[in-house]
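Hi R.,

Here's the chain you asked about this morning:
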Amino acid sequence: MAEKWCLNEIYAGFDSEEFMADFLELPKMAEAMNTLSGELIGFPDVVTLVRKLEEYVTKNDRLSSYANFVYATDTANAAASKFIYLLEALNAETSRMKVRLAKYLAKVAKDGGNINALAKEHDAEDYAFQLQHMAEEYSHMMSEDEETLAAQMYNTGSGAWSMLQDKLISMLTCEFTCPKTGEKKIIGINECRNLAYDADSAVRKAAYEAELAAYPKIEESCAAAMNGIKGEVNLLSRLRKFDHPLDKTLFDSNMTRKTLDAMFEAIDTDIQCFRDYLKAKAKYVSKSESGLAFYDLFAPVGASAEKTFSYEEAKTFVAENFGKFSSEMEKVARLAFDKNWVDVQPREGKVGGAFCGDIYAIKQFRVLLNFGGNLSDIITLAHELGHGYHSMQVMQEGILNTGYPMPLAETASTFCEMIVTNAALKTLPQSEKLQLIEIGLQDATQVILDIYSRYLFEKSVFAARLDHPLSAQELCELMLAAQRKAYGDGLDPQKLHPYMWAIKPHYYSGTSSFYNFPYAFGHLLANGLYKIYDQDPASFGKKYDNFLRVSGKMSITESCNQLGIDIENADFWKGAIDVIKSAIQEFKELTK
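And the predicted structure, written out as tokens:
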């Protein structure tokens, strides 16, 4: 079975007739939209423009997906880099149209017009929420010329810096000496980081040291990329009348500050229990009384700690356990496997981490992994297929309703992790349950403590970048300060990870700042959803599918209200954390 994804159903190649025809058609579509946007007289013109926008976004999404998927597995691919650049440049030309449309809608609202009623009247009810959001966004827009210029400069600004970081990480190698054999070898950074899951503590420590020793080769380049991106975001946030980049992220996510504050209030209340888990793990893994070493965060525990899995075993494990939740979810997973929608193994030139991306035009998705064969990699597979399942639900809507907010994106994926984990706990032998419980706690601790450290780090970088570019050393110091504050006494203060800012791609986006707290949001909301499912499994499936399907056409608060959840109340988040606290207590009992 192929372990590289197949992209032929998107396009046969950059030089294929279909790709080039679509690429050449796109500028004409953009020009037509810009022309129409300058002639908006009544709401029927708005609807006509929206239909043209649907067609443009569908074609552009297909082209961009193909270019980005090729690039993700081969960052040296010149054609992929070229078309990513050209498509971004073309998208910049639509900025004028977007400002004009938002201006018109804002005027309708200001003059007392009801956008929801008008959308319904003119057969565009499905996009009423998006049109209302555009009207509100106008107060945060610069002039037509300024928005167009900002979009055009993205390619030579934050977009270029982001691609540089991708290339640097994908090509970075480590000098690793195996403590078991004494063999010295050069391995890629992703392969080296996968050794954090090795059962041998000496291997984990050696990999951690090899990883840290590799970053000085690229630290100044990564620091330059970070400074370029954060400087740009600070400037544009101010020009768009946002008090802080975080406010823009919340606006784009249709999420209230009250929700964010309620979640962090709950986390702050119970943060010590996660630290106590790390201290208990430190005693179990290394007999340490001074907290867990960073390189032991993912140390496997339990009788099956040294067990590895083939990708074939991982596919079977995930699909079968998805089937225990719903036949539709299993069907989607098996479709992805059978059609080779997953790129599996780490290799030179391939970006790190894992992600899922959808292609609306053909109603498909693709998953990228860096599969290392441990149990955690199986959970990652379930996580990314959760994104894919979300995509298959939301793609039943019009394409302008498929851009669901980041926090809800992480909810569906985490929910699928829980389906697999909880189903497995019911079937695995007792000797293997400890390892699975611990993997769940690894994940929970990552999205609570580590995500909190990333959130604190990014806030500190934005603040410092207001008056000066930061050196690599300053970035390391800010990262260590954030880790100390978030992890507290849970980690050994002498064995932290100062270069987490260099490896994580989420810091290197000019359009999605603070892509950290959505992971905590998603994980905790998934806990809450699973509690609802556990109480009434028979009726939950349809409610859940509908929740996913409409997630792009209403606010997060409204989405959750459909399921009876009040996310602006800290009590909900505390209840979600209680689920994790129970698992922590069980872990402590099992490892005494």
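The first strand starts at residue 173 and ends at 177.

Let me know if you need anything else.
M.
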